[in-house]
Amino acid sequence: MAISTFLSSVPGVVMRSAIWLSAESPRWLVEKEPYEKTKVVRERLHGNCLNGDFIQLEFRETIDTIKAEKQVAVSSWKEMIPRACWRRRLTLGMCAQAFGQLFGITVMYNF
Question: What keywords are annotated for this sequence in UniProt (predicted)?
């Protein structure tokens, strides 16, 4: 039991330590608004500076998408509960999570 627990934790430890080596997401940077750093990260991700027009277009598209998402986003639970369509989505999501835990791989680990 102890050996299997150790072996199953190795990928998690590797991923947790490698997260510090990866670059920030350009989308996250745009949301936080350090635009200069976003452009540098995008240039590094695309590999060269020859496609500057594409990088600029992608940058503008990301900004527009985030603005559109903020306009239609649900900002609190109070907005989510009264609407029937959101209640249904919330219930389905919670049931999927609960049933996944009850009948999924977790059950196999316990036997």
Answer: Membrane, Transmembrane, Transmembrane helix
41 with 23: CB under 8 angstroms?
A: yes
20-55, pLDDT tens digit by residue?
A: 888 788 888 888 887 888 888 888 888 766 677 888
> What DSSP designation does 111 have?
-
SS3 19: helix
Helix ranges restricted to H, the chain = 2-18, 26-32, 35-46, 52-72, 77-80, 84-103, 105-110
Contact 92, 76 (CB under 8 A): no
Amino acid at 42: R
Distance between CA atoms of residues 72 and 33, nearest Å? 20
Chain Cα centroid distance, residue 103:
25
